[in-house]
Design goal:
Shape: elongated
Distance between the termini: 5 Å
CATH class of the largest domain: Alpha Beta
Strand order of the largest sheet: 5-6-4-1-7-8
Largest sheet: 6 strands, parallel
Number of strands: 17
CATH architecture of the largest domain: 3-Layer(aba) Sandwich
Strand content: 15-25%
Helix content: 25-40%
Number of domains: 2
CATH superfamily of the largest domain: Phosphoglycerate kinase, N-terminal domain
Radius of gyration: 23 Å
């Protein structure tokens, strides 16, 4: 895979079509979490410093081929203007109505942005003609949207048929981090996995069991394990009809010599916004909600992390949004950070809730890598071939 950094000296005056994932949450046209935007700033600085002209392609939401003003790229363009401290023009005209010569007609323009790609049906259909039109606007194509690369869309896949194509800085850092936990592993390696639905991550779990030394279940996912082991989980969330999945996980873990851990004690409440009460898993009552791990479980978890050289974390330990149930997730994060600061561990975190937890603890910057890619992150961990990677290769 060719990288944009490998051709830095030949970027001067080139028009770069840069695919980014700027699909950030918006509320009344205001950005509520700019994390994805902030991550690609180094790529933009790199291209501008090397005298390139940049045309940004991205999307927001799921307009399904219709122009929806609430899903305009306008607030993102404004945010980037302030962040980059330079003029960025949003092109709102229909792309079928203008040509490459209309772009960068002002010599002082260095960055332009197209309106939401998903306003066009051709994007999600991976339409050949739509990809050709996008390609006609530049000299080189750069994919720095790893989090969109599990989608076979025109601006990710077919566009590479018409231009010399390269991987961006963030794209390469994401793949490098994920390879550290799937291929180039420093052992022992531990995975902490949560989330509410075990069925959505079963392929990830099966793929990781064959590679990992330890697999720790927390959060809602652990409730499925506890229920399968005949413990009372009260009113806690769990996924029905998953007994066979849990059995498969334990059978495979024995075969692959991967140790499985699940809670020994928990913090429960009567409602999610209430107070916590620590109980052994054998003491959970019918009206209890399991909302965090308990101190005994946390101690076991921390010992496992202490003896690990690589850690993947996907899914918080509890309902961290409530102060009374954030201790498990916070202490896990602090333990990983402690090991990181001593350079004794390589840490990767991913998944929306995990990232939100780390952001709320202000500990994101102390992890080796924090992925904002949702579906692409999980599909890579499943061992699937991602269309965006295949296209660049």
């Amino acid at each position: 895979m060719k990288t944009i950094e490998s051709i830095a000296k030949s970027l001067k005056d080139k028009k770069i079509i840069l695919r980014l994932d700027l699909n950030v949450p918006l509320y009344k046209k205001k950005i509520t979490d700019p994390n994805r935007i902030d991550k690609i700033i180094p790529t933009l600085h790199f291209l501008i410093n090397n005298k390139a002209k940049v045309l940004i392609l991205s999307h927001v939401g799921r307009p399904k081929g219709k122009v929806i003003e609430e899903l305009s790229m306008e607030p993102i363009c404004e945010y980037l203007k302030n962040k980059m401290n330079q003029q960025i023009c949003l092109i709102k005209e229909n792309i079928y109505d203008f040509q490459e010569k209309d772009l960068f007609s002002n010599k002082n323009e260095n960055i332009l942005m197209l309106e939401n790609l998903r306003f066009y049906n051709g994007e999600e259909e991976n339409n050949e003609e739509f990809a050709k039109i996008l390609a006609s606007f530049g000299d080189l194509y750069v994919n720095d949207a790893f989090s969109c690369s599990h989608r076979k869309h025109a601006s990710v896949y077919n566009i590479t048929n018409y231009l010399p194509s390269y991987a961006g800085i963030q794209f390469i850092s994401e793949i490098t981090a994920l390879k550290r936990i799937t291929k180039n592993i420093v052992r022992p390696i531990t995975c902490i996995i949560g989330g509410s639905k075990i069925s959505t991550k079963i392929e990830v779990i099966k793929n990781l069991i064959s590679k990992f030394d330890n697999l720790i279940f927390v959060g809602g996912m652990a409730n499925n394990i506890l229920k399968n082991k005949k413990f009372n989980i009260g009113k806690s969330i769990y996924e029905e009809n998953c007994e066979h999945i849990v059995e498969d996980i334990f059978n495979l873990s024995k075969k692959e010599n991967c140790k499985i851990f699940y809670p020994l004690d928990v913090s429960v409440g009567k409602k999610i916004d209430g107070e916590g009460n620590v109980k052994k898993i054998s003491e959970v009552q019918e009206d209890d909600l399991i909302l965090d791990i308990g101190p005994e479980t946390l101690n076991l978890l921390n010992k496992t992390i202490e003896n690990s050289r690589t850690v993947l974390w996907n899914g918080p330990a509890g309902y961290f949004e409530n102060e009374n149930f954030k201790k498990g997730s916070l202490e896990i994060a602090k333990k990983i950070v402690e090991k990181n600061k001593k350079n004794e561990i390589y840490s990767v975190a991913g998944g929306g809730d995990t990232v939100a937890a780390l952001n709320s603890f202000d500990l994101t910057k102390y992890f080796n890598f924090v992925s904002t890619a949702g579906g692409a992150f999980l599909e890579f961990l499943e061992g699937k071939e991602l269309p965006g990677i295949k296209a660049l290769e």
